[in-house]
């Protein structure tokens, strides 16, 4: 029997997941909590096999929980539960999560993910896998732009001319042009539109 803890700060989501998984053979919902602190302070945590952990929670988020659990000798395997596929998934996997599933996954997929995690396997929903690929690509590329260069490019992306960019940032149009030229050189861009495209592809904006 898999002893499961569900950690999610949204009561309806948490209760709905618990109801679904209580109907699954071989899974026992041992506890439901609403924050990261409640996870770590729960008296039955040592008995939990799988922790179904929301990434976004008050009083210590999912990544914070993972970092604390990494220092404990007895910790459950962690299956992330999230509504958004973003760079935090990669950070959470690096912090020790076994896998990730989206909140809108079908009940049978969620139950199977819990079983696979309990057996020591790893589960990644397609959206979570895409987030990991994006994070890996971004990590492989140097973050070469300065904060000012990024700010200038963001305004270029909004269609602002150099004079307007200078006014909004409190610098001269000549200085704006210098920042753009530096950004072009670093990104290997031909012009303003090309620079914005490259920066967006590298998730620098």
From TrEMBL:
<dbReference type="InterPro" id="IPR016032">
    <property type="entry name" value="Sig_transdc_resp-reg_C-effctor"/>
</dbReference>
<protein>
    <submittedName>
        <fullName>Response regulator</fullName>
    </submittedName>
</protein>
<keyword id="KW-0597">Phosphoprotein</keyword>
<dbReference type="InterPro" id="IPR058245">
    <property type="entry name" value="NreC/VraR/RcsB-like_REC"/>
</dbReference>
<dbReference type="Pfam" id="PF00072">
    <property type="entry name" value="Response_reg"/>
</dbReference>
<feature type="domain" description="HTH luxR-type">
    <location>
        <begin position="138"/>
        <end position="203"/>
    </location>
</feature>
<keyword id="KW-0238">DNA-binding</keyword>
<dbReference type="InterPro" id="IPR001789">
    <property type="entry name" value="Sig_transdc_resp-reg_receiver"/>
</dbReference>
<keyword id="KW-0804">Transcription</keyword>
<dbReference type="InterPro" id="IPR000792">
    <property type="entry name" value="Tscrpt_reg_LuxR_C"/>
</dbReference>
<dbReference type="InterPro" id="IPR011006">
    <property type="entry name" value="CheY-like_superfamily"/>
</dbReference>
<dbReference type="Pfam" id="PF00196">
    <property type="entry name" value="GerE"/>
</dbReference>
<dbReference type="InterPro" id="IPR039420">
    <property type="entry name" value="WalR-like"/>
</dbReference>
<feature type="domain" description="Response regulatory">
    <location>
        <begin position="3"/>
        <end position="118"/>
    </location>
</feature>
<feature type="modified residue" description="4-aspartylphosphate">
    <location>
        <position position="54"/>
    </location>
</feature>
<keyword id="KW-0805">Transcription regulation</keyword>
């Amino acid at each position: 029997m898999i002893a499961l803890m569900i950690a999610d700060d949204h009561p309806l989501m948490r209760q709905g997941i618990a109801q679904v998984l209580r109907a699954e053979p071989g899974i026992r919902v041992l506890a439901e909590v609403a924050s990261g602190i409640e996870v770590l302070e729960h008296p039955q945590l040592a008995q939990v096999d799988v922790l179904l952990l929301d990434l976004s929670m008050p009083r210590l988020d999912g990544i914070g929980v993972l970092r604390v659990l990494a220092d404990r000798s007895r910790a459950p395997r962690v299956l992330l539960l999230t509504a958004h596929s973003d760079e935090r998934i990669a950070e959470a996997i690096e912090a020790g999560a076994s896998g990730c599933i989206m909140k809108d996954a079908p009940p049978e997929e969620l139950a199977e993910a819990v079983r696979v995690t309990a057996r020591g396997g790893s589960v990644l929903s397609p959206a979570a896998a895409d987030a990991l690929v994006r994070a890996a690509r971004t990590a492989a590329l140097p973050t070469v732009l300065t904060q000012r260069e990024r700010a200038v490019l963001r305004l270029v992306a909004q269609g602002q001319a150099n004079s307007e960019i200078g006014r909004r940032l409190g610098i001269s149009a000549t200085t704006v042009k210098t920042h753009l030229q530096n950004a072009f050189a670093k990104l290997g861009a031909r012009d303003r539109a090309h620079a914005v495209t490259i920066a967006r592809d590298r998730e620098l904006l």
